[in-house]
Design a protein that fits this description.
The protein has nine helices and seven strands; from the N terminus they run ααααβαβαβαβαβαββ. It is of the alpha/beta class. Strands 3-2-1-4-5-7-6 form a seven-stranded mixed β-sheet, sandwiched between helices. A hairpin with a 5-residue loop joins strand 6 and strand 7. The structure holds S-adenosylmethionine (SAM). S-adenosylmethionine (SAM) binds next to helix 3, helix 5, strand 2 and helix 7. S-adenosylmethionine binds next to helix 3, helix 5, strand 2 and helix 7.
Amino acid sequence: MSELPARPGAHGLGLDQPAVSAVLSRLYAAARAGDPSAMARAHAEAAELPAPPTVAETSALCAAASLPVHPHTGRFLYTLVRTLRPRTVVEFGTSFGTSAVQLAAALRDNGAGHLTGTELEAGKVHQARANLAEAGLAEWATVLAGDARQTLATMARPVDLVLLDGWKELYLPVLEVLEPMLRPGSVIVSDNLPMLPDGFLTRIRDLGRGYSSVELPLGDGIELTTWTGEEW
Ligand SMILES: C[S@@+](CC[C@H](N)C(=O)[O-])C[C@H]1O[C@@H](n2cnc3c(N)ncnc32)[C@H](O)[C@@H]1O
């Protein structure tokens, strides 16, 4: 995964703002330098378990794996938030906080809004909070510790923008938790399109349920969806 170079004319703004850029550079460099066999080892360890690993066991096996969004996807998320000016942004799967920094930087540059991130692995929660603070973005984001299916259920406010980037088999259950909170015109970005289960894609592409959706060739492939609020 290559980090995108700072853009000519960026003037140290946006994702090129020095504190933000320093944290993102460090996170992407660490991800690149990470043990390439870490995921293979996690799969091998999972295969040794007497039963398929639970969600929490999978997160524990991947405790050292950063798995950040592709830098192009990160720039897309920043641009989307600057365009749509959402008040409430939710992220399923925060890890060490790469996409959280990209989303929170856009909220800060908008001058309004808040990100609620979610992370199951306690060490990652701690590091994501520290990375957001180091980027100067602590007041723009909260990272909820625990299983997103429970932690997000307590969200009271309408949700304007969602990034789905946790374990792929949970995209649909997490979406179902969020569905009653979606504002008409809200946007959902689903990362790692080639890995997404059919049941999730069927739901998110169902105009009858109010969704309008398109796949985009960004990073590993993403699905960009709006919930229109018009169920047929
Ligand atoms: C692909 S990584 C997220 C990468 C992150 N968005 C970034 O750009 O740095 C997926 C993360 O989702 C977390 N996760 C998986 N299932 C979860 C759940 N049910 N609740 C909260 N977090 C979960 C994992 O522990 C893992 O850290």
